[in-house]
Target: Iron complex transport system substrate-binding protein
Amino acid sequence: MPSDPLASPLPRRVVLRGGAALAAATLPWPLRAQPARAPARRIVSLGGALTEMVYVLGAESLLVGTDTTSLYPEAAQKTPKVGYMRQLSAEGLLSLRPDCVIGTHEAGPAVVLEQLRGAGVAVEIVQADHTWDEVRRKALLVGRVAGREREAQALWARLDADWQTTRQRVAAAPRRPRAIFLLSHSGSPMVAGGGTAADALIRFAGGVNPVGEAFQGYRPLTAEALAGAAPDLFLNTTQGMEALGGADAFWRRPELVLTPAFRRKALVAMEANHLLGFGPRLPGAVAELHGRLLDATA
Model:
């Protein structure tokens, strides 16, 4: 999804008493002692993938709130909502009386996270860098916060086995389709370049993002630029397609006419969190996208 996330620092909470404070202040961060924290009892989850992890690890009874991207499983839709994870309100979050808030570095604004910390709420942040290791970090974070570390390690072992199987299947594919993730609403179509979740998914699934090395993030592209990129197919989310009015409306965009994808009407749409969430369903999402990329360009 289009984003220009501002990195927020990882929380560094250190209990210092008396003269120990002076000594600790001179030590580099990794050497400072940290107190053991008891498992959280009231968690707010900011991000669909982290919320999925909470459910997969059987810790949903600890959830007191989630953000609006937390739509899976269906039960998550019934949790109290704190708004979009990039546009949070300290007042709304604190009204749920959480003792821990979990999110990615995309959560913010940063001032709100600092207000939560100032109120004594533990704020646990994981870096979202669109790698397979991101999934591991999310699983272990939720396991630690929820007091389910053993379950998180077991989950990671299962997910990694699935991931390796999927990667072997992708590596054996006969071709690498050229795929562009395109959000088409008002104005020029927004295309996913390098450093985006969509770019990573295309590569994981055995495709080539022809604009992946041309720019970072999302940019609008002209008809000429899209024609030069020569995508074999376009990739979108089911939510984006519904908002646009379906496939017929998508193909009415004049910027698409000169592309190979337009000539074959090659379009793949998948649910946004499943496709781009980088959660426990990522191995399945990559396997599904891989098959659909090949089918759409057969």
About this structure: The beta strands are 43-46, 63-66, 100-104, 122-126, 179-183, 190-192, 218-220, 233-237, 267-270.
